[in-house]
Amino acid sequence: FLKTGQFWHVSDLHLDPSYHITPDRTKVCSSSKGANASNPGPFGDFLCDSPYQLILSAFAFMKDSKQQVSFMIWTGSGASRRRVPVSYMLSLFISITSWASKESVVSQSLIAVFWMCAVPHYFCSLSQDQLPVTTSEVYNAVADFWKPWLTDEAINTFRKGGFYTQLFESSDNSQPLRIISLNTNLYYSPNSVTVDITDPANQFVWLEGILETSLQKKEKVYIIGHVPIGYLPYARNTTAIREYYNERLVKIFRKYSSVIAGQFFGHTHRDSIMVLLDEEENPVNSLFVAPAVTPVKNVWQMESNNPGVRLYQYDLSDYSLLDLWQFYLDLRDANKKNESNWKLEYILTKAYGIEDLKPESLYKMAKQLSVPHSTLFEQYYSNFIVSYDKTIVCEEGCKTCQICAIQYLDYSSYTDCINREATWR
């Protein structure tokens, strides 16, 4: 009899407190940057970041689902993309964590642990505008807020660079799970603070040390972060973090793949998977990028995403990932009916005909998606944009970017894939 556990994953809430319904659609929200909101309603608009009501509806849905969960991971980012004062960031952080507690998404004793990434709350990083290598007002304030739940060591590393590690000890399992919360915003391409710094805040050295200790102690690890590693599935030859940092992380994750049971990110606002292959192209790690709660897009973008949250199931004996349930809110329908009806979009194993979420299974799935004229890929792309518009298709160059980003995370193998697919097509 397989004993299982569950946890929620939410990402990119992007609260815009300026959101309000007004006849002047250029002033519905500051996040539209003066553009006409397309069809604003009580739960938001595709040109705006999240109103309070949308975020509250997501937490209410998780509460009302009555799922028995061990923790939640929150992979950033909390504030709207517009620049906001530090005091606002801190107030927002405290408000959101209070919502989760009030809505009893997880038990009060588990609401602990991570800024922008994770419940306990395992949160993973600050917004791109708060990226100091030395201590900062934001890091210190958040560290103080989480002091009741974090170890002294975790508090110290968080003050230093916004990253930390913490053991999650399940009452059903003698083997603890180590959660490593990386501040991948240090590696984010537009982050001018870390240009030409080989190891910002010494996070690489710290990460390898933690993973080596986990290897020696036979621990299992979940990696959480905001900005993902690998190549963006919608932009050819483009990594979300700088290529040098990406290559280094890929090397580290390959080396310690035996202890890493899963990796979880946000940032892109889209729903995607990646499979880390070793140098012999054997699948060794499963990576997941969760879609955003915010539905925002730029005026020039053809597509956006419906708001989404997800639930993972894992094996309590080794923390291997067994399945995920992706839920979403049809924003147009919710605004039309003035009610939030969050519903199941798909169950990953059933949608793609695989056994579980282990690397071997995801690799099998990736190969099925690569088949020419694959109806499975059509479904994957619809899920990628969280059922935003089922008439939108992804063909030729678009599909090439998707397929290569799923399977190849380092420069050499990704470039080979792009060139091979381009020649073949």
From TrEMBL:
GO MF, any single term: metal ion binding
SUPFAM superfamilies: Metallo-dependent phosphatases
Family annotation (Pfam families): ASMase_C (PF19272)
UniProt keywords, alphabetically: Disulfide bond, Glycoprotein, Hydrolase, Metal-binding, Signal, Zinc
Biological process (GO), any one: sphingomyelin catabolic process
InterPro entries: ASM-like_Pdiesterase_prd, ASM_C, ASMase/PPN1_MPP, Metallo-depent_PP-like
GO cellular component, one term: extracellular space
Domain (Sphingomyelin phosphodiesterase C-terminal) ranges: 282-424
Cofactor field: Zn(2+)
Similarity comment: Belongs to the acid sphingomyelinase family.
Protein name in UniProt: ASM3A phosphodiesterase
Lineage: Eukaryota, Metazoa, Chordata, Craniata, Vertebrata
Protein's gene: Smpdl3a
